[in-house]
Amino acid sequence: MAITIYHNNACSNSRGALALIREAGIEPVIVDYVKNPPTRAELADIIARAGLTPRGAMRDKGDVYEQLNLADPSLTDDQLLDAMSAHPALINRPFVVTDKSVRLCRPPAVVKEIL
């Protein structure tokens, strides 16, 4: 099974999901999404396939979120996608993509649903 994890090693949820994937005997493709972010189109696709909205896929903590006033409910999905594309640290993590589905694995055990 091919698995890709959009990973941030500084995140305990991301490390936990990666550990569960490896415990299942699978070595995933690891994408450090801060250094190598998905394109805007890829990001939109991942979010949609996970059954989320851009707001639901956005990390709502940190300086960038506050500086860009991203809590503003009038912002459109396109504006939120633009912000995540420009500032990949705003992408919540970890997203895991398998042949079965895509999930935002918070908590990490969610990854078991798609292994």
List its salient traits.
115 residues; alpha+beta; 4-stranded mixed sheet; 4 helices; 4 strands; 12% strand; arsenical resistance; Arsenate_reductase; EC 1.20.4.1; Arsenate reductase; Arsenate_reductase-like
Describe this entry's structure for a reader.
The structure is a single chain. The chain is α+β, with helices and mostly antiparallel strands and 115 residues long. 32% of the residues lie in helices and 12% in strands. It contains four helices and four strands, in the order βαβαααββ. It has helices spanning 12-23, 40-49, 63-67, 77-86; strands spanning 4-7, 29-32, 95-97, 102-104. It has a four-stranded mixed β-sheet, with helices on both faces. Strand 3 (95-97) and strand 4 (102-104) form a beta hairpin. The radius of gyration is 14 Å and the shape is globular. The model has no long low-confidence stretch (mean pLDDT 97). It catalyses: [glutaredoxin]-dithiol + arsenate + glutathione + H(+) = glutathionyl-S-S-[glutaredoxin] + arsenite + H2O. One of its GO terms (molecular function) is arsenate reductase (glutaredoxin) activity. It holds the Pfam family ArsC. Keywords: Arsenical resistance, Oxidoreductase. InterPro entries: Arsenate_reductase, Arsenate_reductase-like, Thioredoxin-like_sf.
